[in-house]
Write a structure and sequence with these properties.
Layout lengths: L2 H28 L6 H19 L2 H12 L5 H15 L6 H23 L3 E3 L6 E3 L2 H10 L3 H20 L2 H14 L5 H10 L3 H34 L20 H8 L3 H5 L8 H11 L7 E8 L9 E6 L2 E3 L2 E3 L2 E8 L6 H20 L17 H13 L4 H7 L10 H11 L3 H20 L7 H16 L24 H21 L8 H10 L7 H9 L6 H8 L2 H15 L17 E7 L2 E5 L5 H18 L3
Parallel strand pairs: 3-7, 3-8
Antiparallel strand pairs: 1-2, 4-7, 5-6, 8-9
Helix pairs in contact: 1-2, 1-4, 3-4, 5-8, 6-7, 8-9, 10-18, 10-23, 13-14, 13-25, 14-15, 14-21, 15-20, 16-24, 17-24, 18-19, 18-20, 18-23, 20-23, 21-22
The protein binds zinc ion (ZN).
Length: about 650
């Protein structure tokens, strides 16, 4: 064995041992599986520190960089070495001065997080005048659903109090240190450093695409907001008769941040609910993915989908076992994903189906990365956020398609979703489609502005003024519905200068959809999609850049064109497209699930609920496992206290 081959094997084995141990403990801690919860979460934290120590070792990075320049090894070994260099470069800092500063930043971030955690967040009750404690999820929910306008406004002001709090508790010092670090490492500022390392795109190039998207959705969004304000102002006018006596109203402006989301939320969720029974979610996922030709190359997928006491409150997918070839021998992926569905609650079936499509899309991606080392197929940096989210968001985008809905969204008696409901859903969502994208863009634009402020202007007043300006410009309201500095991503080192990934992914999803629609005419049950995504998007893993994967499939680099078209399409044109896609699917064969073993995902799928195994495809076919799942869910719904 050459010395390079030995080095690569050693890296692989050490990384896999540290990664698997960290991830298995993480899963056990987050799912509340262990008998001793305290001890498990302590062990999980220690395993994470051990992995970080390995990945942040500056000497390892210098040594690998030096090896990369000495020309040893064959082409495949050199490619693998480059993969490891990229992985260590995304985690380690080899300049000692910069490393010291980075450590000071981590300490300051931890101090701010502690202060923020101890902050008595809540709202001032408009009737009693008392301060009521409430977390940020609760405050956001109040803004969307509380019929009392004064309470919605109080919830909004509660969220805003996070901003003044963080500005007075060290956030500005963190921004200054982050910028100093970015510049020390040779970049324009902190944001530029992060995009260059994580997305492998300088800030300038990234925002060229985002600026384009913002410019081309401005006019349509302005018109949609004007129409929205007119409609709701008319409803609120005294003496004005409305069709619906219980119509939602607001006495202050309909575009005030505490009114906008509330007035927008319609009755569609309730009407869609019968067509998304929770018990059918697993079956629909399996059949749709199999019909697309998606396979998992022997992976083991463990799914824990239902909420319970002691379980972590956010859904996620993690891959404890990255897929790769170990000395030519295939090691299939081992992937876990979780959701917090409440069977029987309105909208829970749709959300469970979305989770399965989204996380199942991530899993398909990570199970199909064909590198010679695990550095290419793990979900953290240098794997780009935009690249990873494109794979999951493409899959969940299918659920909104009219042809998917008439084929798969059947109610309990087997009736497909009617066209009238498909149209009503389009009428509700399409007019503000552009606004939704601009709301997502508010975070990266505000962060860019923050890191570009000259140091002597980094005062609470100037920062808030700058952020409010970005919010008004993009959302067209007096202020953003969710105050930017109340978004937790900005505070922590791991997720700041990161949110653009979701916007870039949304662009790539529409670019991908447009490519398949132009080439094949349809998406639902198109058997060419799985193999094409596997070849162009999934196989290289992070060895290719996001842009290179898009070029490999669609023939062009990342562009806002397709998303701009989707945002600016009129309601009538969207409805016409929905009708055409439903017409066109009539002549195409349906995925044949008459044969009991038609769903071939090449995966071992296990659904668990904590320590209880609900169903598995081991020793049985997918349809049998899916009907066990359905039975179990029906049992949960029946047992649910009403
Ligand atoms: Zn995701």
């Amino acid at each position: 064995m050459t010395s390079l081959a030995a080095t690569l094997r050693d890296l692989r084995d050490r990384y896999i041992a540290l990664h698997e141990s960290k991830e298995d403990l993480f899963w056990s801690a987050k799912m509340g599986l262990a008998a001793d919860v305290e001890a498990t979460s302590r062990a999980a934290a220690e395993a994470e520190i051990a992995l970080n120590r390995f990945l942040q070792d500056p000497e390892m990075l210098s040594r690998l960089r030096k090896t990369a320049t000495d020309g040893s090894g064959d082409a495949s070994e050199r490619r693998t070495l480059q993969g490891w260099v990229a992985m260590f470069a995304a985690n380690a800092i080899d300049d000692p001065q910069a490393r010291a500063l980075s450590e000071r930043i981590v300490e300051a971030e931890a101090a701010l997080e502690r202060a923020r955690g101890a902050m008595p967040l809540g709202y001032l009750d408009p009737v009693s005048g008392e301060h009521v404690l409430a977390g940020s999820n609760k405050l956001a929910l109040m803004m969307r659903t509380d019929p009392d306008e004064a309470r919605r406004r109080a919830a909004f002001e509660g969220l805003r109090s996070i901003e003044t709090f963080v500005l007075e508790n060290g956030f500005l010092e963190i921004v200054k240190m982050r910028n100093a670090l970015g510049r020390m490492l040779g970049y324009e500022d902190y944001y530029d450093w992060r995009t260059s390392v994580v997305e492998r795109m300088p800030k300038r190039d990234l925002f060229r695409v985002l600026d384009d998207l913002a410019a081309r959705t401005a006019e349509g969004t302005r018109a949609a907001l004007d129409a929205f304000a007119r409609t709701h102002a008319a409803k609120a006018a005294p003496g004005e008769a409305t069709m619906d006596g219980a119509a939602k109203q607001a006495t202050t402006s309909p575009t005030a941040p505490w009114n906008f989301g509330f007035l927008r939320a319609g009755a569609i969720t309730r009407e869609l609910d019968p067509y998304f029974p929770f018990d059918q979610a697993l079956s629909r996922w399996g059949r749709s993915f199999a019909a697309l030709g998606v396979t998992y190359r022997g992976a083991t997928l463990t799914l824990d989908l239902v909420d319970r006491v002691g379980k972590y409150e956010n859904g996620f997918m993690h891959g404890p076992g990255p897929a790769f070839f170990a000395d030519g021998e295939w090691r299939p992926a081992r992937i876990n994903f979780t959701a917090n569905a409440v069977p029987g609650a309105i909208g829970s079936g749709l959300r469970a189906t979305e989770t399965l499509f989204h996380e199942g899309g991530h899993a398909a991606h990570f199970a199909n990365i064909l590198g010679d080392a695990p550095c290419f197929s793990q979900e953290f940096a240098p794997t780009s956020v935009a690249y990873a989210e494109t794979q999951s968001m493409f899959m969940d985008s299918l659920l909104g398609d009219a042809d998917w809905r008439v084929r798969y969204a059947l109610d309990a008696s087997g009736q497909p979703m009617p066209m009238a409901l498909i149209e009503a859903a389009i009428r509700e969502s399409q007019p503000l489609r552009g606004w939704d994208v601009r709301a997502l863009m508010t975070v990266p634009f505000a962060e860019r502005a923050l890191y570009e402020l000259p140091e002597d202007e980094l005062t609470p007043e100037r920062v808030l003024e700058t952020i409010r300006g970005v919010e008004r410009e993009l959302q067209g309201l007096d202020a953003a519905v969710r105050p930017v500095l109340a978004v937790p991503h900005l505070l922590s080192g791991g997720s700041s200068a990161y949110y653009h990934g979701y916007v870039l992914a949304e662009m790539a999803v529409y670019q991908t959809r447009a490519f398949f629609l132009a080439r094949d005419g349809y998406l639902t049950d198109n058997p060419r999609i799985g193999p094409d995504l596997a070849r162009a998007y999934w196989a290289p893993g992070n060895a290719a850049t996001f842009d290179e994967t898009l070029r490999a499939l669609t023939g062009s680099g990342l562009s806002a064109d397709a998303l701009v078209d989707a945002c600016n399409r009129s309601v009538d044109a969207s409805i016409a497209l929905a009708h055409a896609s439903v017409e066109a699917q009539r002549t195409r064969p349906r995925f044949e699930d008459a044969a009991h073993d038609a769903v071939q995902l090449d995966a071992s799928v296990r659904v668990i609920h904590g320590t209880h195994l609900v169903c598995t495809t081991d020793g049985s076919d997918f349809a049998t496992a899916a009907s066990r799942f359905a039975e179990w869910v029906r049992g949960l719904v029946a047992a649910r206290p009403s």
